[in-house]
Design brief:
single chain, alpha+beta, five-stranded mixed sheet, two-stranded antiparallel sheet
């Protein structure tokens, strides 16, 4: 019954876009039922290890959507030393992972994805030495449950689990991709974005330095478009644009909004859950996929446990995002000409 309802729900149009009032009401009722059935009391938090059932290991590897698993060795590494993998299962679907989170145990907030995914034995630390949990992948496996906030429940459950097992771990942060950033930049440069002009005075100064002379706004845009539209962007080819892209990335995450909420879905998810936009990391993901979607930039969303409820309420009620000073400095509001609001935007 649960599987039957969740699958059709995934193939329907979204509630907002469905013009048929009857079907819309059916979808609303379906979502209410799914929310009730997939409440925390019906979910079981499981830690996956290399000794876990093979069929579940296979499904976790198959469903991984953020950073695809590159084979058995890769999967073994993700559930091995200095790593944790947790998932939710439902009592009615005991062999079916619903949402999965991968965690790296470290001493500091991670800034590079490859250091996590391709770590070797000499990089591992004893669990007792870890002070930081890095949530580097969260994947929902059931499209029919897209409207149910299982990811939020899973993160909170994992935090509680780690606090019990590893009391020295006090810092909880993600190392998250920024899907859509490159597309947004190019769309904006071409004048096809609802956001408007993204080349401010500070970026124009940087572009003049790159060009070696003072250039017009349209020439600056054309130079950026030409440099950022290659089919396969190489890290060394965009190094000269680091300051510009880091600034634009901060703008994209903090100021590109729709209905007052972050345009980027990953940012919206974590900030809605109470996280702080903590730090942007240049060259964090040099894979083809990472370069294609965000020029290799990744972001840390930091979960300060004592602030989660307040931050979440501020975002959902007042549309204000909590950001670390590292992000505020990238925005540099005095130059942008916008009103400076410490910590929240």
């Amino acid at each position: 019954m649960v599987i039957y309802l969740s699958d059709p729900y995934s193939s329907q149009e979204t509630l907002d876009n469905n013009p048929d009032p009857v079907l819309k009401r059916v979808e609303e009722i379906s979502k209410e039922l799914l929310t009730m059935w997939f409440c925390l009391s019906n979910l079981q938090l499981i830690r996956l290890t290399w000794e876990s059932p093979a069929d579940i290991l296979h499904k976790v590897a198959k469903y991984e959507a953020v950073h695809p698993v590159a084979g058995i060795t890769d999967l073994q590494r993700r559930v091995g030393a200095s790593r944790r993998c947790f998932l939710f299962i439902h009592e009615a679907m005991p062999r079916e992972p619903l949402v999965v989170v991968h965690v790296a145990l470290t001493r500091d907030i991670a800034y590079n994805l490859q250091k996590i995914l391709k770590s070797t034995e000499e990089d591992w630390i004893d669990d007792e030495e870890a002070t930081t949990a890095i949530y580097y992948s969260i994947s929902s496996t059931q499209k029919g449950l897209a409207g149910i906030d299982l990811g939020n429940l899973l993160i909170k459950g994992v935090v509680e689990e780690l606090q019990r097992d590893l009391p020295r771990v006090k810092v909880h942060s993600t190392l998250s991709p920024i899907p859509g950033f490159r597309a947004w930049v190019l769309r904006s440069l071409r004048g096809n974005s609802e956001f408007g002009e993204i080349i401010d005075e500070k970026i124009r100064v940087w572009m003049n330095e790159i060009a070696g002379k003072e250039i017009e706004l349209e020439d600056a845009k054309n130079l950026l478009i030409q440099s950022l539209t290659a089919n396969r962007i190489q890290p060394e080819n965009i190094e000269q644009f680091k300051n510009i892209l880091m600034r634009l990335c901060a703008v994209y995450l903090m100021r590109a909004k729709r209905n007052g909420l972050a345009l980027n879905p990953v940012a919206n998810f974590h900030v809605r859950n109470g996280a702080e936009v903590y730090r942007l990391n240049w060259g964090a993901d040099s894979s083809v996929r990472g370069m294609d979607r965000s020029f290799g930039i990744m972001v840390n969303y930091k979960y300060n446990l004592e602030d989660l409820h307040r931050n979440s309420e501020d975002y959902t009620s007042n549309k204000r995002m909590n950001a670390h000073s590292q992000i505020i400095d990238l925005l540099d509001y005095n130059v942008c000409g916008s009103i400076y609001m410490p910590k929240t935007i």
